[in-house]
Amino acid sequence: MSRNAPLLAADARRALVLLPLLATIALTAACAATEDGPPGSAPATTAPATATASAPPTDPPSPSASTPVTIPTSAFVELPAELRKSPRRTTPVEEALPKLCGNEFGTGGRQVTASAAMTVTYQTAGAPSSNVPQGMIHQTIFTFDGDGAPGYLSRLRAAVQACPSYDQSGNRVTVKSKALPGVGDEALLLTRTWPETSLNGERTGDTASSQIAVARVDSVVTVFNDQGWEGTSGNPATLDRVVRDGVRTIDAWQG
After folding, report:
1. What is the pTM of this model?
2. How does DSSP classify residue 105?
3. Which overall architecture, per CATH, does domain 88-124+131-254 show?
4. Alpha-carbon gap, residue 108 to 180, rounded angstroms
5. What number of other Cβ atoms are within 10 A of residue 169's Cβ?
């Protein structure tokens, strides 16, 4: 046997001892390379942590946002049979509201939750059916959120005071206002007066007039715009009756 045989055997035994250690080192290095590898390497399979804190709850929606307001036909006044020339009909709000120097009656603002309008055509009690109507009353109803209703009346009073007169179709129209007691929570009566003209447009020397009434019932405001037939005068007694009946109708609707 050669002298080198024992040395070779010893070297072989040392190599066998080192193999497990080298394998362990290689495996550790491979794991480290996988977890801390460069961009583009395979992502770790460990699931990401989940936050346990929840977001604070949001405020509940306002009543006007969660419960839309609907104004039914039954909320509008209906004329008694002896005054009714034709049934009430739906009218666009912008056409029903009166205009003086500007858009005084259309300043509801963002607190308006609903609006609607209807028109009634009236006659003189006992008049023959062949007669022309005496006039029309446009009724507009606004519902408000918060303090919007009294705010509307406050702005309207200021706007009317700033408009003592205005021009309409070449005629000077004067405006006077006063409180209307005993109607709703608060009410305002406006009287418009202008030179009367005949059917052919000629001035008669007299004056014509019509009235506007605005009443508040809690968070509801209603506007009554009386217009005489074909530019003639309205009927103050009929308007007064319609306004008071209209406020009672709204009060019953509101419950």
Report:
1. 0.73
2. G
3. 3-Layer(aba) Sandwich (3.40)
4. 21
5. 9
